[in-house]
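Structure tokens please, single chain.
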Amino acid sequence: MSQQQWITIPSHLIGSIPRPDGLIQANVGYENDVVSLEKLQQMQLKAIEATIRELDVTQSEVLTDGEQTKPSFLTYPIYDLVNDCYTFDDKCFQLTFSDGHKRTLPRLIKAPFHFATYAYRYLNVAKQFTSKPIKQAVITASALSMVYSPILLSMGAIENYTREQFLVDLYNECEKDIRMCLVQMDFTEARLSLKIDPTGQLLKEFILINNKVLDRFTREEQKKIGVHVCPGGDCDSYHSYEIDYTLMLPDLFQLHLTNFYLQLSSEKDHIRILKCIQQHMKPEHQIYVGVVDPINPLIESVQTVCDRVLEAAQYIPLIQLGTTDDCGYSPFADDRSTSREICYDKIKARIQGTKLAEKILNEQR
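Here you go.
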């Protein structure tokens, strides 16, 4: 077989890597005015450099900064505005996880909606430490739409600021966030929406909101954009694992982008989900299936990963197949549920198992 005929199976991580304990402690110290901003920033730079170096050792072709300096994947654009433009009360949108803990999205009380931080800021720092491509995850417009949803969440409306005006501001800011990065949108609320509204109307609204942003990009630009979905892993628990995955997937593939990063390894019935993917994916789509589970502390063997790739290849054309992790390893800055060592061992298994499957599948052609 000539080199030109070989089909490579790309393998990308989602984004977040557990923060070092020292950085987590420094974040807490800064919030309590016992650690200076200068000291915190030194710790952050050290963590970013270490993360990129350690990911490079795993032979990852595309790196991330591990989201070491994000407060969370969800709130990074508005985190610095929380005290001035937002409030926390019983009208806020909440994520409730299977172990009972909650994560709360603040409620907008001061117009207009705008970002304080764009993801490119994290990207530019990370570029200091590598010449490899760096992927930066951004939050979806649909997730941020929940900071101001007067009807759905019975929030009080801001005077002279309609939901429609808010959405225009939201689209503008999310477009700007995406344009500045090689990007993957985190759409964890896709599956959650069916828990909130089993009719599927909220999911369709979320797809519409995200497509309003995506339609501002050309077809060529959309080829560089990806989306990640999962049942929302945090602190070793989920917020919507009980929701039937196959009810969400048909709508998901209506998003106007190319790359889909799909949680799979933690699902009980891989075949049923792969058949659904096969039925609804489009010829231009690249499908990255999850082959390792960050929630499970058991480190997958290279052979286990290989077997999962071979299984997926029965339903997804080899030219459209990629692999990923089911989820990020630490989507919120204070999550200590997974060690960095376990995380890197899982990433190595994913990459090596994917390479083994790639060899087998190419030799079978």
